[in-house]
Design brief:
This protein is mostly beta strands. It contains five helices and 44 strands.
């Protein structure tokens, strides 16, 4: 790792030295002022440096430059964020400041809320579509609820797409990369009538397979996804405006495959042994005819998905005297069909299928102040209804001689009242207070399981309800115009839920409780000069009933399910800096650390319980909560002109610490560094540019996740070095 750190530093310094030598023609009048970033994190437009919460903002240009095309990749550009892909599939497991939830099923709520144009995506698998035509991404750390439609303990990721423009404009970004990777994004925007504007954006991503079947050499991992978004902005009067958003996507991509990091003795040792893959690009897969027929796939199909989604929202805003009334009505739907091979072999040890139909209807009403008084406020009502129909099938024929089928429906209905007020006692001192009351009911309907076609658990229904009161109290102090100091105490809640894995025991689906998080934070935001910006925060989180993956003792022995740890805590800190020490040179850095520990938690000791044929518990008080402790990311860019051409050289890099596994050291994910680089060139007086880029510049070999299923020890490898070119045209 140290050699790689030296390589990254040396590479960045070499790039800077070469660009500095070429920059002698740079105009001396170019400013070294850091641009002001405007956000809507608190439901109104504010400069990010004036918002007393820890947040990171990434521009749409930065996303394109770093090759970020889905929400999972944000972890390499945001402090204290981890997004873990479950078994190489489409279920994302979010963790922010150590607050996370590990679940490969579809039915439970995440700890981190994901929003697109203020519309919540409350089912994690719904977040896996393409990112395109984005103006900015705001990542808010800490519990959210007094301003946002959903209640989350970890934070929120808010995507704001580009809006229709007053003037006609159009653009196209095309990108070609290694392994026949192709991506294109285009838009057209402008006026349609006197008070009507429109915008249409389309994006597609294709190819890129770099993994191969260890036996046949067949490739796997090609992307095949397309998305589109149409926006209509209508301003019939000076006080009334509407924004209609209609969007959809199709994803027929092959899965990123898994590799074996231990020998696999197939058929429980009765079959041939597959040696561990020293080459992490090697993998394997296979389907039994019976399983292929039951999931609607050809017997020679590759692991992959056939998903489709669409949605619409209407954002209406009415300006009243000293107030604004906002209504957001939305509908989102997803049809998921995804086959995964979790044993990474042609043997039928752990083949899985998710067939999901998700519908989410939501309505939000907000009334907010709109004046220059010392008191500003927002109050709102939120309603949401989710319907999920799920089929989860598993084929264990070669190891257990059976296959499993789980089917169920889940309905979630919630409503809440929320509000937040800010009062400025003076120009320097402000107090903030917010509350949220919520009622949510979750019903698991007709959960049934079968093994080998024989009923193991007849259709069974269970439900759970929560009525948390959450909120926030904060103080902000500005000793000078360029320094903000803040402190806050907030309370967040995450929904309870159900474990929907293979089980023949009712105890396996009994609901687990909501988790409650008290968060205490102090921080500062400072601009010592026009060329320096430094932000920092420290926090302490106090958990009650933290949701953890464990097991319970049922009538037939141990059953894997989520449980609640009565008491635990997390603490940590973050530091972010942006520097513009010379004209054209911009440096950004972010460093974060976190640590957690269980204060009270007795977990089922599965081996001891099996030996005793009764429940035996292990005291885990004092044990660490497992997540990467350190994370670091940064970027350096330099732009200059030469012979009428604008040139930008850029490198960005990130470090992710060791990720210890609760399954044991064998499944720990080792720390790794990643570095990317690009050079962009285009005429100063033309609206086009060409960029040459490299991602994972030093070809770092790393894993995104490690796990096991049945007898297979598997890992999902990160993508090796890719190089390519990007063409950007604007009109």
């Amino acid at each position: 790792m140290n050699r790689l750190l030296v390589s990254v530093s040396a590479g960045a310094l070499a790039a800077l030295c070469s660009t500095t030598a070429m920059a002698q023609q740079a105009p001396p009048e170019r400013a070294t002022t850091i641009d002001e970033v405007i956000v809507t994190a608190q439901r109104r437009e504010q400069a990010a440096q004036d918002v007393g919460i820890a947040l990171s903002v990434l521009s749409g240009e930065s996303l394109v430059q770093q090759g970020i095309t889905n929400v999972n990749q944000l972890q390499n550009a945001t402090p204290n964020l981890e997004v873990e892909p479950a078994f190489g599939g489409g279920a994302a497991q979010f963790r922010l400041r150590g607050v996370g939830f590990q679940d490969y099923a579809s039915n439970n709520s995440p700890t981190v809320g994901v929003y697109v144009n203020e519309v919540a995506y409350p089912v994690p698998v719904m977040t896996q579509g393409l990112i395109f035509d984005v103006d900015r991404v705001e990542v808010l750390r800490g519990p959210q609820g007094t301003l946002y439609g959903r209640n989350t303990t970890g934070g929120a990721i808010s995507f704001v797409t580009r809006r229709p423009t007053e003037d006609l404009s159009a653009g196209l970004i095309s990108e070609w990369g290694s392994e026949e990777q192709f991506r294109a994004e285009g838009y057209v925007s402008g006026p349609l009538a006197a008070t009507l504007r429109g915008r249409l954006a389309i994006s597609t991503e294709q190819g890129g397979a770099w993994q191969r079947n260890r036996d046949t050499g067949e490739t796997i991992g090609d992307a095949d996804r397309t998305g589109a978004r149409a926006l209509l902005a209508w301003d019939p009067t000076e006080t009334l405006s509407f924004l209609l958003d209609v969007h959809g996507g199709i994803d027929k991509s092959e899965n990123q495959a898994l590799y074996l990091f231990s020998d696999l003795a197939t058929r429980g040792g009765a079959g041939p042994t597959i040696r561990a893959d020293k080459d992490h690009s090697k993998t394997g897969w296979g389907l039994s005819p019976r399983f292929a027929a039951s999931i609607g796939r050809d017997v020679d199909a590759k692991p992959g998905r056939d998903n489709s989604s669409w949605g619409t929202s209407l954002n209406a805003n009415l300006a009243l005297k000293g107030m604004n009334l906002t209504s957001i009505s939305s509908f989102e739907t997803l049809t998921r069909s995804e086959y995964g091979d979790w044993d990474s072999s042609a043997s039928i040890e752990a083949d899985t299928f998710f067939g999901s139909d998700v519908d989410v209807v939501a309505q939000e009403l907000r009334l907010s102040s709109d004046n220059d008084s010392a008191l500003t406020w927002v109050a709102g009502f939120y309603y949401s209804k989710q319907d999920l129909n799920e089929r989860y099938f598993s084929d264990f024929t070669d190891i257990y001689g059976t296959y499993a089928q789980v089917t169920y429906d889940q309905q979630v209905e919630s409503w809440s009242l929320f509000g937040q007020a800010e009062y400025a006692f003076t120009d320097q001192l402000k107090a903030i207070f917010g509350l949220r009351y919520e009622e949510e009911t979750r019903e698991l309907q007709g959960f049934g399981s079968a093994f080998g076609g024989a009923t193991a658990l007849p259709p069974t229904s269970v439900d759970t309800k929560m009525t948390p009161l959450t909120g926030k109290a904060a103080l902000e102090f500005k000793p000078s115009d360029n320094v903000l100091i803040y402190g806050s105490a907030s309370r967040g809640a995450k929904s309870g839920g159900f474990t929907t894995y293979n089980t023949g025991d009712r105890s396996g689906i009994e609901p687990f409780n909501p988790e409650i998080l008290w968060a205490y934070e102090v921080g500062f935001k400072a601009d010592p000069s026009r060329a320096i910006q430094i932000n920092g925060a420290a926090y302490y989180y106090d958990y009650t009933d933290q949701q953890v993956l464990s097991a319970v003792w049922g009538a037939n022995g141990p059953v894997g399910r989520f449980a609640n740890a009565p008491s635990s805590h997390i603490w940590g800190a973050e530091l972010e800096a942006v520097l513009k020490p010379a004209p054209g040179l911009r440096i950004s850095q972010a460093l974060s650390y976190k640590k957690g520990e269980y204060d009270e938690y007795e977990a089922l000791d599965v081996p001891a319980s099996r030996a005793a044929n009764m429940a035996v518990f292990e005291d885990k008080a004092g044990d660490p909560i497992l997540f990467p402790a350190w994370s670091y990311n940064g970027a350096i860019s330099y732009d200059w002109t030469v012979s009428g051409f604008a040139v930008t050289a850029e490198t960005n890099y990130s470090y992710r610490d060791d990720y210890p596994s609760w399954l044991g050291a064998k499944y720990d994910v080792e720390a790794y560094w990643l570095a990317n680089a690009s050079v962009t060139v285009g005429p100063e007086d033309a609206n086009w540019s060409v960029a040459f880029w490299a991602r994972n510049l030093f070809d770092q070999e790393y894993d995104l996740t490690r796990n096991f299923f049945t007898s297979a020890d598997i890992a999902q490898p990160g993508r090796p070095r890719t190089i390519g070119v990007r063409l950007n045209l604007q009109y």
